[in-house]
């Protein structure tokens, strides 16, 4: 299996688990985002940052991690190949 095929297959296999974890965390932080009452300003600011960070990391992470794997693994395999002299 090529490096790109391996990255695509692993991304497909792990996508559901990663997204379920991220979505459950995001929904768990949602009460902080819509907080009201005493001390609500600090809870809202903390909730907003965590909510946005998890949302961005879930979206970008599912794209960038396989891409970084392809780049690093390609570089590693290129370094392992013996150099031929002419």
Which descriptors would you attach to this protein?
86 residues, mainly alpha, transmembrane helix, AcrB/AcrD/AcrF family protein, transmembrane, membrane
In short:
The protein has 86 residues and is mainly α. The protein has helices at 3-33, 40-80.
Can you put this structure into words, describing what you see?
It contains 2 helices and no strands. The protein is an all-alpha fold and 86 residues long. The chain has one domain. The longest helix is centred in the C-terminal third of the chain and has 41 residues, at 40-80. It comes from Nitrosomonas eutropha. The chain crosses the membrane at residues 50-72.
Number of DSSP helical runs: 2
Strand percentage lies at under 5%
Number of strands: 0
Order of helices and strands: HH
What would the average pLDDT be, to the nearest integer? 90
Summarize the main sheet: none
Unreliable stretches covering 5 or more consecutive residues: none
Shape category: elongated
Spatial separation of the terminal alpha carbons: 30 Å
Helix content: over 70%
Number of folding domains? 1
Q: Indicate the structural class.
A: mainly alpha
Radius of gyration: 20 Å
SSE order and pairing:
Layout: H1 3-33, H2 40-80
Helix pairs in contact: 1-2
Organism: Nitrosomonas eutropha
Protein name: AcrB/AcrD/AcrF family protein
Transmembrane segments: 50-72
């Amino acid at each position: 299996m090529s490096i790109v095929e391996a990255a695509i297959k692993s991304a497909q296999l792990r996508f559901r688990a990663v997204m379920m974890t991220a979505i459950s965390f995001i929904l768990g932080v949602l009460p902080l985002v819509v907080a009201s009452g005493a001390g609500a300003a600090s809870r809202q600011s903390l909730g907003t940052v965590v909510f946005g960070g998890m949302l961005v990391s879930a979206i970008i992470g599912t794209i960038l991690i396989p891409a970084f794997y392809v780049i690093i693994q390609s570089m590693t395999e290129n370094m392992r190949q013996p150099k031929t002299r002419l």
